[in-house]
Amino acid sequence: MEVQWDSSLQSTTLSDSEIDFNKEAKRIADLDMPQAIVTKLINNVLCGDSIEEEAKLAVIRSTTQFISYLTSSANKIAKNKNHKNIQPDDVFRAIEECEFDEFLPKLKDELNAYVEIKRSAKAKQNEEENVTGGPPSSSIVTDLPSDSGIK
């Protein structure tokens, strides 16, 4: 049985049980990964080879679906642990449950590298504060003495 949509039957008002598919499609498209980021990733992987626009759109939609699925799985794992926030271990467990185990070593290495970069930046900032006796000069001053003349 084939169902066809007759545009002459469109209603301008929808009941609570009806769905406005045009609005729903816009919301789904709003969840897509930014095209510029995906294009940059694709170009890095392809090393100068080109990709058609339809293929790029397929990668964008696939990426969005993958992230949504993985996030949903990680969220279930976090909730089962009575956590309010998803932790990296929840994501790693979700990747295992989704049978993407081959990604885990690289992802864990990347997370460790990111954590180390953040730790080094924090240590450098703390070192600068200790040398100068306060935060870097680019910090915003919120407490001024009342006799400073600045209002």
TrEMBL record:
Gene3D superfamilies tied to this protein: Histone, subunit A
GO cellular component entries: CHRAC; epsilon DNA polymerase complex
Top-rank taxon, per record: Eukaryota
Subcellular location: Nucleus
SUPFAM superfamilies, sorted: Histone-fold
DNA damage listed as a keyword: no
Region (Disordered): 122-151
PANTHER family: DNA POLYMERASE EPSILON SUBUNIT 3
Protein name per the record: DNA polymerase epsilon subunit D
Organism: Cetraspora pellucida
